[in-house]
Amino acid sequence: MRRIAISVAASSLALPLAACGVLNSSGSSSDATPAKGNDITVGVLMPEKTNTRYAEFDFPIMKAKIQELTANKGKAEYENAGGVAATQDKQMQKMIDEKVDIIVLDAVDSHAIRTMVAKAKTAGIPVIAYDRLAEGPIDAYVSFDGELVGEVQGRSLVEALGSNVDTSDKIVMINGSPTDPNAAVFKGGALTELQGKVTIAESYNTKAWDPVIAQQEMTEAINKLGKNNIAAVYSANDAMAGGIIKALKASGLTKLPPVTGQDAELSAVQRIVTGEQYMSVYKPYPDLAEAAAKIAVAKVQGRDIEFDALTRDTVDSPTNKKIPSQLVSVVALTRDNIKSTVVADGIYKISDICTADYKSACEAHGLK
User: Fold this and answer.
1) Which helix or strand (DSSP H or E) is residue 335 part of?
2) Of 146, 227, 337, 368, which residue is 20 to 30 A from 95 by alpha carbon distance?
3) Partners of 281 in beta bridges
């Protein structure tokens, strides 16, 4: 992956990427003579349901942008595989059979899906890899800089341990699914910040990002290391962080070690407010979903200049080189910047976060 120049704000760990596409281009139907009109169908395939972002944010935002770009004539068809690769194969085959114009694919298993990507290509249907880099002849890739996500998580964990951080401090790593290439990238990024500063005492790769499995893994780590010998926990995402925190509480700990996350799920934001979870990585879903919509519509309508402008980056997969790509910025979400991130972007309202159970904690941190 070609890295983009970044600037680091040490206080907030906000890490904006340099512009890697024309995110604000209008892409209106008057910009060019399209190869296809506005009456297009975009198939959207999402990977799993334990993470609420896909149904709550990614797809609705993508759908709205597709409609905006096509004068409300374009359609978006949605399927979610529920974490089962075979189910996603069937869903993709159905879209190929229905002759959708383009497919936006967030793969359950990036390697196993390559046969279906090739089938779509043979059928003349372009495939945009979304969030996870699928193998096979994909036409473009839209995601966040996964290595940077891991770096933000790892750096945040070291920051949470404070100035007395020591190589003897034991860290447990609960990583994502071994079938998701992003999980290995997140882990690699985190290790660049953790190695040499702390000891990775236990490390797990969690099937399907399952929070129940993550809870079991954390329980195993507590039994091996002792509940008072764990300085911090690296959790690759928020859903697993929820399971990890359940295990920590069940062990009888009254003061929980810092726990990371990713995705800025509502429950995680609430845990951050109360101090149960130290941080999450906020990935601005409107930017990602809108970028995918713009790229998909430009590709179908033959707007090569706009497509090229939106995919100025390139990445390599195990099967393809120099895939046109757009990578979107990420921000470390802590108590200090909830208002300026998820609230300012309209992801949540203060009232969504500060329900009755969290009212006092919200008030203590100026969230009202």
Assistant:
1) none
2) 146
3) 332
Report the amino acid identity of residue 284.
Answer: P
The secondary structure of 249-281, three-state, reads HHCCCCCCCCECCCCCCHHHHHHHHHCCCCCEE
What does residue 252 show for φ and ψ, rounded to 5 degrees?
95, 5
Q: Is 111 exposed, middle or buried, given 0-12, 13-18 or 19+ CB atoms closer than 10 A?
A: middle
Q: Judging by DSSP bridges, how do beta strands 170-175 and 199-205 pair with one another?
A: parallel
Interatomic CA distance for residues 209 and 192, integer angstroms: 22
Banded model confidence at residue 29, pLDDT cuts 50, 70, 90: very low
Total Cβ atoms within 10 A of residue 152: 29
The pLDDT, as a whole number, for residue 5 is 30
Helices (H), 55-179: 59-69, 85-97, 114-122, 146-161
Q: Which of 238, 271, 260, 245 shows the shortest CA–CA distance to 362?
A: 271
SS3 at position 174: strand
pLDDT of 23 > 50? The answer is no
What spatial distance separates the first Cα and last Cα of the chain, rounded to whole Å? Answer: 41
Task: Enter the pTM of the model.
Answer: 0.76
